DNA sequence: CGCGGACTTGATGTGTTTCAAACCCGGTGG
DNA sequence: CCACCGGGTTTGAAACACATCAAGTCCGCG
């Protein structure tokens, strides 16, 4: 609760047309003409680990396209604990509910350093009235959000702690079998297990050579071994 | 897999304008004029318990508005098991992905006898191009689906088996504190626990007088007691 | 009447939680 | 430079909840 909110730094105005990840992002299929409809600035923002993009219940002023890094969507439990309900990476959209004028349902926190584009709600509404393209994209994003949510429930909420951890690594791993991981407390909040169990499992996988920690929380993984663990008991 | 698909019976053509639950359903804010855009029949269908509205991977021909009864959305696990990822009731929409032309991501199965309206995909696409109203509703439905998914994860995937069962009852209970419940196997699939544990917990709650089984799988519940259990250990 | 399916119950084992303590490491200040 | 602290991680031992395997019961139904 007392986490510093410092760490959100303005980086400049976004140049959407020339954006490197546009084809996978919300503005994917906007046309030249569509861009002229944007009359509010889209800011590029750098968010430091631990800082929030927005908080649950906030007035929805904007939604965010993640350009790099990792964002966790957190929901707080009545008992004070927290549960991470989704993880967002490059190309994903955070705070979609802002497009509907609904208050944010989660708190979005940067896990790794995050580069993001802040798109004001007014821009979305304007575009979504004027162009079918964006409307389709919005629907697709919602669809994607549901799929992710279901996947979280099925993949990360089922089976033994070891299997869950293995599946989590498999969802985070890159093409070189490397993986930027995060704190054990967060692992627990994602998988619905305790911090200690998360730590035990990760430590054990390191000992077994399935994981190799090149730097703190940076792992090289044995993909095959992880897959075997993912469905085993 | 071999569940009979019998039990889906045509009941007639829907009269959307006069529909009793329209204000809560997908067609909530369509105008008189909008209805004239519907050129394909909307069927009213009765689905018997255990029968499917559609199967995972099916070509998306239609989406469904649930008018009464209870529908489960099921996802199958690699190991052959299954997990129920959402429960739908009167006013809810099943198979939203059809509006996007995406294949169904779940299998939708009637738990209690279900009365449903089958809305062909073409109708949705036509309407969604012609009227902002429906478009907004579609977005809202997606939003709702995500909220449900998150609630499933947080409420039904956290805490002890007893707490989860209590929360499940609280989500199903009606204003008279009555509750149409369902098989223990399904309870397990919803909560991520085994059939036996589900049975044990329900049986124990019956003995404690928290639940009173008036007829098979029809319960009168002590709401206060359930709420106490819901966050307790 | 006897069968099958869903529910209940018991005994046992194991995985996970819990409570505690030790550890490692980067940072701070003497 | 080193002592010291604090947060995150690891590890241990004991308690507990849940899974598992295996009967047994209670229906409805042919």
UniProtKB/TrEMBL annotation, chains A, B:
GO cellular component terms attached to this protein's record: cytosol
Pfam families hit by this protein: cNMP_binding, HTH_Crp_2
Name assigned to this protein: Crp/Fnr family transcriptional regulator
Domain Cyclic nucleotide-binding: 26-145
CDD domains membership: CAP_ED
Entry keywords, A to Z: DNA-binding, Transcription, Transcription regulation
GO MF, any single term: DNA binding
């Amino acid at each position: 609760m007392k986490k510093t909110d410092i760490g959100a730094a303005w980086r400049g105005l976004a140049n959407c047309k020339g954006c490197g990840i546009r084809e996978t992002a919300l503005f994917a299929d906007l046309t030249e003409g569509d861009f002229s409809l944007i009359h509010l600035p889209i800011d590029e923002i750098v968010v430091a680990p631990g800082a929030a993009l927005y908080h649950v219940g906030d007035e929805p002023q904007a939604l965010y396209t993640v350009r790099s890094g990792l964002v966790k969507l957190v929901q707080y439990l009545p008992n004070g604990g927290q549960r991470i309900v989704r993880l967002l990476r490059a190309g994903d959209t955070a705070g979609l509910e802002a497009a509907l004028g609904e208050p944010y349902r989660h708190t979005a926190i940067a896990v790794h350093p995050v580069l993001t584009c802040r798109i004001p709600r007014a821009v979305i509404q304007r575009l979504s009235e004027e162009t079918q393209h964006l409307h389709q994209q919005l629907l697709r994003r919602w669809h994607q959000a549901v799929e992710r949510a279901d996947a979280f429930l099925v993949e990360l909420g089922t089976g033994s702690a070891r299997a869950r951890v293995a599946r989590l690594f498999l969802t985070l791993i890159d093409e070189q079998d490397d993986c930027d991981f995060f704190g054990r407390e967060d692992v627990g909040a994602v998988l619905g297990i305790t911090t200690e169990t998360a730590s035990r499992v990760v430590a054990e996988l390191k000992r077994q050579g399935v994981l190799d920690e090149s730097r703190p929380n940076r792992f090289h993984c044995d993909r095959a071994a992880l897959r075997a663990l993912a469905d085993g008991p």
